[in-house]
Amino acid sequence: MIEDRFLARLQHLIADGQRRILGLVGAPGAGKSTLAEQILEALPGQAVVVPMDGYHLANVELERLGRASRKGAEDTFDSAGYVALLKRLRVQQSDETVYAPAFRREIEEPIAGAIPVSPDVPLVITEGNYLLLEHGHWKDVRPLLDEAWYVDVDPVLRTQRLVARHMRFGRDEEAARNWVQQTDEPNAVLIDSTRHRADLVFNWSE
Predict the structure, then answer these.
(1) How far apart are CA 150 and CA 173, in angstroms?
(2) Cα(100)–Cα(63) distance, rounded to whole angstroms?
(3) What does UniProt give as the signal peptide span (predicted)?
(4) Which residues, including other chains, have CB under 8 Å from residue 105's CB and lie 6 or more apart?
(5) What is the DSSP letter of 75?
(6) CA distance 150 to 25
(7) Three-class SS state of 189
(8) What is the structure's pLDDT at 146?
(9) 13: closest CA among 123, 94, 151, 150?
(10) Which residue, 61, 96, 57, is CA-closest to 80?
(11) Residue 1 and residue 42 in contact, taking contact as beta carbons nearer than 8 Å
(12) Are 107 and 21 in contact (CB under 8 A)?
């Protein structure tokens, strides 16, 4: 369960009833999705999660671009599309439901229109790796966030989680460890370099 001090911060953020966007940023396996789910449970009916992963490029496009072996890197997402969605979500229309894509790990593909964001939901939680980057279309994400929290965890535990995740979705142990070292960890180094742009660090060890 999310600590009272973080919950109080969120309640203050949405106290005026206006639409707010919270960004949860962190390396692969840091626990962003878990934190997002805890916030949903703590604020029933007041929040919705819109993950950045919904903007993964489709596998067929990654193959065409020669980027399939680096899936998860910053250039394997439709970053411009993600920014466009955040801009729509900031404008709280009285009668419009905005639909966001989701990412399904069991098929390793994004699914369009899977997440409805109703106009009366005050808090949109968006979680992903590259929300604090300062180049490309990614640089336009931070100004659209009312708050950004950097989610951190012990790196050994994070690596163990990643290996287990990759194995759960079809890779053998050797392939899972290779993917973590060759793809996830280089991405993690880049993501960690952006933590200074966050409003606070949420550390799972605390």
Answers:
(1) 29
(2) 24
(3) none
(4) 165, 169
(5) G
(6) 5
(7) helix
(8) 97
(9) 123
(10) 57
(11) yes
(12) no
Q: Which residue has the tokens 């903007």?
A: 55
Q: Which residues pair with 147 in a beta bridge?
A: 22
CB atoms within 10 A of CB 127: 26
Quickly state the pLDDT bin for 65 (edges 50, 70, 90).
very high
Where are the alpha helices (H) located in 79-154, listed in sequence order? 79-90
User: Does 179 or 47 have the greater pLDDT score?
Assistant: 47
The first and second tokens of residue 13, run together, are: 């953020």
Q: Is the confidence at residue 92, as pLDDT, over 90?
A: no
Domains and CATH numbers, the chain: 4-203 (3.40.50.300)
Inter-residue contact 103 to 56 (CB < 8 Å) = yes
Other Cβ atoms within 10 Å of 132 Cβ, number: 23
CA angle 149, 150, 151 (to 5 degrees): 110
> 143: which 2 tokens?
């100004």
Residues 30/203, Cβ–Cβ less than 8 Å:
no
Tokens of 72: 């998860």
Alpha carbon 50 to chain centroid, angstroms = 8
Q: How far apart are CA 75 and CA 21, in angstroms?
A: 23
Residue 107's CB: how many other CB atoms inside 10 A?
A: 10
